[in-house]
Automatic annotation (TrEMBL):
Keywords: Endonuclease, Hydrolase, Nuclease. It comes from Komarekiella delphini-convector SJRDD-AB1. Pfam families: Uma2 (PF05685). It comes from the Bacteria. The keyword Glycoprotein does not apply. This is Uma2 family endonuclease. Transmembrane segments: none annotated.
Length: 228
């Protein structure tokens, strides 16, 4: 059976993507999780300009051809990019053997007690060798901790109280505010000074505020900014 899934490539074998399920069109999320995923992914793309990376939500990650893919709520992989033809079968999901490495960060958002985020999923991400595994439990379904961070040390995950992810140069933090018209507490990426990575809308608002401040200063100096 394994031989049917493999094709010869010189001195080694790689799985045949045509035999793998890259998507099944099954809806799996709720409103809160979907918004949280968009916030985490979108803020990365609006804020990080100088580094190549791939971040996505609800996209399958194949870590071995012998098992079905695992589908993180969010993942971040540094120094990789989407192939040009993303509609080809082998390019539709994250296959570790094609990208040459696992994602550095995988995040699971807990919405019930059925996901086994601290059991089977943790073991899979550990086997996949993702550098960091983050469990965000906003409703405290799994205990008192809202954020759990696991760091890969050697072959095993160790829980850490450190929310700064040194190997990726980013941190995570809880932030209270409005996103897409919803006021709530959100999980956000942050810099080392704990300032959050802004979304595109937040960047636009900041630019508008700076422009308004400049206009007020010019008017105070007797200059009409509309004539400049």
């Amino acid at each position: 059976m394994v031989e049917q899934l493999l094709i010869n490539n010189d001195d080694y074998y790689v799985p045949d993507a045509n035999q793998l399920i890259t998507e099944d069109d099954t809806p799996v999320d709720n409103f809160a999780s979907a918004k949280q995923q968009r916030l985490l992914v979108g803020s990365l793309y609006s804020s990080i300009q100088q580094q190549t990376f791939l971040a996505e939500a609800n996209v399958g990650v194949y870590y071995t051809d012998l098992q079905p893919p695992i589908v993180p709520d969010v993942f971040l992989s540094l120094d990789v990019q989407l192939p040009q033809n993303w509609w080809e079968k082998q390019n539709r999901c994250y296959m570790v053997w094609r990208f040459g490495k696992p994602p550095e960060v995988v995040i699971e958002i807990v919405s019930n007690k059925e996901g086994d985020e601290l059991g089977k999923k943790q073991k899979i991400y550990e086997q996949m060798r993702a550098s960091y595994y983050i469990v965000y439990d906003p409703n405290q379904q799994l205990g008192e901790q809202v954020i759990r961070v696991y760091e890969l040390r050697g072959m095993r995950y160790f829980e850490t109280s450190e929310t700064w992810l040194e190997q990726v140069g980013l941190g995570v933090t809880l932030w209270q505010g409005e996103f897409e018209g919803r006021q709530d507490v959100w999980l956000r990426w942050c810099y080392q000074d704990e300032n959050v990575l802004p979304t595109g809308d937040e960047r636009a608002q900041q630019a508008e505020q700076r422009a308004q401040l400049l206009a007020e200063r010019l008017r105070a100096m007797g200059v009409d900014p509309d004539t400049l």
